[in-house]
Design a protein that fits this description.
This protein has 276 residues and is mainly α. The protein contains eight helices and no strands. α3 packs parallel to α8 and α4 runs antiparallel to α5.
């Protein structure tokens, strides 16, 4: 709704500019000026412009032309910035999900292999532990024959348990390496994305400046209305000039914001390129 009103304002001022530049200013009631001007103020401004000397009339026409162009640019850059910002936020959200998933499937697979190996070898480890407990019990009762028999059985199982532990350790090493590789990859990509942080700080500063300039429009706009009411062409021209200056600053800030969003987009693309 706000954008529609702004666009209507641009059209109104274009019509006003066209009429203002007519040599005779035949229809002052149809003239318009800056945003939020009432029909009464618009008509009064048209009459004031038509009564001004040629030099003042040209200055007023030029300022109104500048203001009209700047207002149109303001809308265009606002739309471009918001669209790019939306695309960046969407791309960044997707990228963060992809970063979090780096190595996840491989780690999950290796974790399952470790778990399965431990489960598979558990009966062997339990059996080996049981033989050792029995040997300890046999020594306590002084049964050398039982100890000898149990030692022979334990010796036969020991190699199998060592191989089983080696297999589990190898799987755990691969799991640990996979986790480390994923962590390094995530850190590298997040490090690339960190380049966007100072750009975001500057964007925030630009937004604050734009809001400040917009608040500053109030005084010259009020001065413009008062000057038009008093038929003060010089005062109206001075206020209009200030409105143009502030509008230009707003547009420049929005252009700068778009440049920053473009650079953020580049950073995001660079980070995406680092995905494994």
């Amino acid at each position: 709704m706000w954008c529609l009103k702004r666009k209507e304002g641009v059209k109104v001022r274009l019509a006003a500019l066209f009429l203002m530049l007519l040599p005779a200013f035949a229809a002052p009631a149809e003239l318009s000026a800056a945003v939020n001007l009432t029909p009464t103020v618009e008509a009064a401004f048209g009459g004031l412009a038509s009564e001004a000397d040629p030099a003042m009339r040209a200055t007023m026409g030029k300022l109104m032309s500048d203001l009209t162009v700047l207002d149109a640019q303001d809308l265009q850059w606002e739309d471009k910035v918001k669209n790019l910002q939306f695309r960046n936020e969407e791309a960044l959200g997707i990228l963060y999900k992809q970063i979090n998933r780096i190595g996840a499937d491989n780690v999950q697979k290796l974790e399952a292999e470790v778990k399965q190996a431990k489960a598979r070898y558990k009966p062997l480890f339990d059996y080996y532990a049981s033989l050792n407990r029995q040997m300890t019990a046999a020594r306590r009762i002084g049964s050398k024959q039982a100890v000898s028999l149990l030692r022979a059985q334990a010796d036969g199982v020991r190699i199998s348990t060592q191989l089983a532990r080696l297999d589990i350790r190898n799987k755990e090493d691969r799991l640990r390496a996979a986790k480390d590789a994923a962590a390094k990859s995530k850190a590298r990509i997040r490090g690339t994305l960190a380049a966007a942080d100072p750009l975001k700080v500057r964007l925030k500063a630009d937004r604050s400046a734009i809001a400040r300039h917009k608040r500053s429009l109030s005084d010259p706009l009020d001065s413009f209305k008062r000057a038009v009411k008093k038929k003060d062409a010089a005062g109206a021209t001075a206020a209009l000039s200030e409105l143009v200056t502030l509008s230009r600053q707003i547009v420049e800030r929005k252009q700068a914001s778009y440049d920053l969003e473009s650079r953020i987009s580049t950073v995001i693309q660079q980070a995406k390129g680092q995905l494994p």
